[in-house]
Amino acid sequence: MRRLPLVLVAALFIGAAARDATDRWIAATDLPVLVAESSAEVLDRNGVLLRAYTAADGRWRLATSLDAVDPGYLAMLIAREDRRFYRHPGIDPLALARAAGQALRHGRVVSGGSTLTMQVARLLEDSGTGHWGGKLRQMRVALALERRLDKDEILTLYLNRAPFGGNLEGLRAGSLAWFGKPPRRLSPAEAALLVALPQAPEDRRPDRNPAAARAGRDRVLARMAQAGLLGAGDLAATTRAPVPETRHPFPALAPHLADRARAADPGAALHHLTLEAGLQARLEPLLRRTVAPLGPGLSAALIVADHRTGEILAHLGSPDFTDSARAGYVDMTIAPRSPGSTLKPLVYGLAFAEGLAHPETLIEDRPATFGSYRPSNFDGTFRGTITARAALQSSRNIPVVALAEALGPARLVAGLERAGITPAIPGGVPGLAVALGGLGVTLEDLARLYAGIANGGRAVGLHWQTADAQTTPGPAILPSEAAWQVADILRGTPAPPAAAQGRIAFKTGTSYGHRDAWAVGFDGAHVIAVWIGRPDGTPVPGAFGADSAAPLLFEAFARLKPAPHPLPPPPPGTLIAANADLPQPLRRFAPAQATGPRLAFPPDGATLAPGLGLLPVRLDGGTPPFTLLLDGAPVVTGLRLRETHLPAPGPGFATLSVIDATGQGARASIQFAP
């Protein structure tokens, strides 16, 4: 009995020494790397996954956190795998004793004694579970993890590293692949399958062995019913739920923009874009459906932006990124192309701003020569004297070139640059052809230009990354009055059949040779830009912006929102008047240096064949009506046509003269052969 105190002291000393040694042993544990490379993710404005990329080892490993996981799944996981998780120090002696006893009685392993922390240790080191050496190492790592991390951090490690079959790692990847949704809300059947999969991820893969997957899930559900987490009626209904037999593809929305974001910051794990995933998902099938009947090789692109904030809400560089026949991998939103007539609104807006014209100003749509440049209208016809409003709405070429000549091509290029556009100009020096699309811009450029017009004439910094939001107002492209006048004209352009008239201001365009079809439009909040064509730039016979791109534009608006936002009212200083009420200089467009008439035929010095009964006359330039004189004597007055025939005089020399309405004239000396 006298030795008992000594024994107790010795026991306490040995226990303390063992405890200290164990503490040192645990503290000296060399922990594996806790953070594995996650899949790079591209998220929309609301945090919705647009696209993900596999990690460098080829695995889908999408990071998640406890607050992004269904609480029912977490309760089911802990009840099934480690019900004393929040009470043990990393190992559960009771579970180990139970497992050892069962193994001794049955001669084989019946149940495991691993805690969730031990499973995390195994996952971190990718170690096996069948050897005592490996089990001892897991215990040591588990004890060390518990000392360095809290329970929620350990559980988060499990959620991010557990295997779910194939190259799926982590709960979020498993939930997206097997159920097509993140794990925030799971049914009991879905949660049970995701609890069962990590224990035998290959044997229970639903796409390869659905029977084993169902059996594993149902065992988890039965255990939950025994634990009181699931009622008997719920158990019967839940076990009837089907097991998914195919993997869902991971989201791959906005692939071109996602690739651009990743290329801009390759090391970032998360890329936050201004896009709206739901809108993107609605527009991508629309673009595919639109180009499908147009023949092989045709592609299309589309951009939706909020012109009030500059945020790009949808970005489609092609109908299908994987369609090699249509070169779907080419992002056509950034490909420089001829914009056709889509720059005309800027020309008119600049002319309104300079006081050269007003929407109701009369302007000539007649054959004209501007130096060596002789444009023609798209349809080969001329409409004579029309208003600037009608000229823009019907996209006549002669009037806009006349305005561009009065402004100077450099003024048009400067307007583009103020909008944030750097056009590609052939030869580097702009000519009058720029008014008709004789330069290179991108679909993003056109969206930027029209966003500025819609924004009261002030440039908008379109952006697709949330960090690039514009904090200061952009430069003025047009005065607000001129911008409103342009929008008011474009609102009156006839919309496609069955589309709402007068709600969207828009312009179409077709580049030279039918290579590109365009449509750009806006309402009071949004701008949409559309391109259709071939990525290689070859012609598309019969393609017109009004016929193909405009219907797509209006369908895109319909998928964007239930009804267009109203366009704004005119600014206070806007001159709204009929032609007769305009100031005299604005009633009719008259260039500072008006081009006088010219005798295109017969030319000066011409010798005409003998026996000519009628003399054909063709006029260029000038302002009708015309007076024709032969040897000083009037032979035709009040002529508004530019082609006519005169009785031919006899053999010899004659002088043919023309005088236009402004008093300018031209003459030609001609000889009639005997």
From TrEMBL:
NCBIfam families: PBP_1c
Coiled-coil residues: none
BP GO annotations: peptidoglycan biosynthetic process; proteolysis
Short name of one Pfam family: BiPBP_C
Gene: pbpC
Pathway info: Cell wall biogenesis; peptidoglycan biosynthesis
Domain Glycosyl transferase family: 57-224
GO CC terms: outer membrane-bounded periplasmic space
Name the UniProt record assigns to this protein: peptidoglycan glycosyltransferase
One term of GO molecular function: penicillin binding
Catalytic activity entry: [GlcNAc-(1->4)-Mur2Ac(oyl-L-Ala-gamma-D-Glu-L-Lys-D-Ala-D-Ala)](n)-di-trans,octa-cis-undecaprenyl diphosphate + beta-D-GlcNAc-(1->4)-Mur2Ac(oyl-L-Ala-gamma-D-Glu-L-Lys-D-Ala-D-Ala)-di-trans,octa-cis-undecaprenyl diphosphate = [GlcNAc-(1->4)-Mur2Ac(oyl-L-Ala-gamma-D-Glu-L-Lys-D-Ala-D-Ala)](n+1)-di-trans,octa-cis-undecaprenyl diphosphate + di-trans,octa-cis-undecaprenyl diphosphate + H(+)
Family: In the C-terminal section; belongs to the transpeptidase family.
UniProt keyword Transferase present: yes
Swiss-Prot/TrEMBL keywords: Carboxypeptidase, Glycosyltransferase, Hydrolase, Multifunctional enzyme, Protease, Transferase
Domain Penicillin-binding C-terminal: 590-670
Domain Penicillin-binding protein transpeptidase span(s) in chain numbering: 302-523
Keyword Transcription tagged: no
